[in-house]
Design brief:
284 residues; DgyrCDS4297; mainly alpha
């Protein structure tokens, strides 16, 4: 066999297949209308902590951040973590979870989301390893059925990432790839905060895009950005501005909290990322 053919086969074996945006779906107004019409269906039925007695907000924040680290270290699709976060908040809204099982539920939500979105889903064995063996394989498979039952097997939830390509195709910004990467980072950051779980995905997506546009496309005025997003999504400009300011506050808080990391040496190449979505690289 020719050496070039062998090298090509090796490259093909290592490359992960990724879907690309379908221009037909992006141009069809019915897709955007359907997303906007259906998004409220996948919001938590109640605030997560209205139903919980043992789980506190900071505990959920820790577990969601851990889920983000795992998905980033495993190079999961960008849709996996926001979807897993949606599952987590929906489950907590309808089922009491003891604090000792919170990470187990988070691992299972990540497990299910990766099955739905990944070409090669995360294995249960790998998730057990990421929990530092605090949960067992049998517990993951048992809890998976519980989570699926609580979600009523309604797994194709609409997340903020579902709106990104739709809105960007209509906005037509200059540096599209960079703006999308920034917006995905902001969405991932919002997905670690339960207070964003009750907000419509279109609102989180639009506010994240507005934050990205203000950081990159400086020639766009704030009024022009909000007016354009309002014409696309139907969300009031004042509402967009308010939530965009909330995202900016979260970014500032995150950067302030992690500022001490800049003075520490970078991790070795074989170590996992300490900050999964590399938000500290964003100029804000």
């Amino acid at each position: 066999m020719d050496i070039d053919c062998v090298e090509l086969m090796c490259m093909e074996a290592e490359e992960e297949r990724r879907a690309f945006p379908d221009p037909v779906l992006l141009k069809d107004e019915r897709v955007m209308e359907r997303l906007l019409k259906s998004e409220d269906r996948y919001l938590p039925s109640h605030p997560p902590f209205q139903f919980q007695k043992d789980v506190k907000p900071y505990m959920l924040k820790i577990v969601l951040s851990w889920m983000l680290e795992v998905s980033e270290e495993q190079k999961c699709e960008d849709d996996v973590f926001p979807l897993a976060s949606n599952y987590m908040c929906r489950v907590l809204a309808v089922m009491q979870v003891p604090r000792r099982q919170l990470q187990l539920v988070g691992a299972v939500c990540l497990f299910i989301a990766s099955k739905l979105k990944e070409t090669t889903p995360l294995s249960a064995e790998k998730l057990v390893m990421y929990t530092d063996y605090s949960v067992q394989l049998a517990e993951i498979t048992e809890m998976e059925m519980v989570v699926l039952f609580r979600l009523k097997w309604d797994l194709s939830a609409i997340t903020p990432n579902d709106f990104l390509d739709q809105i960007l195709d209509r906005l037509k910004p200059g540096d599209l790839k960079r703006i999308k990467r920034y917006a995905q980072t902001y969405i991932a950051l919002c997905s670690t905060e339960f207070k964003f779980a009750s907000m419509p995905p279109s609102l989180v997506s639009s506010a994240s895009l507005a934050t990205a546009l203000r950081a990159i496309e400086t020639e766009w005025s704030a009024e022009a950005v909000f007016a354009r997003l309002q014409s696309i999504t139907g969300i009031e400009a004042d509402c967009l501005r308010h939530h965009q300011e909330q995202i900016e506050a979260e970014v500032v808080q995150f950067l302030t909290f992690n500022s001490s990391d800049k003075s520490s040496p970078p991790p070795k190449s074989d170590e996992g990322p300490t900050t999964p979505t590399d938000i500290r690289d964003i100029v804000y």
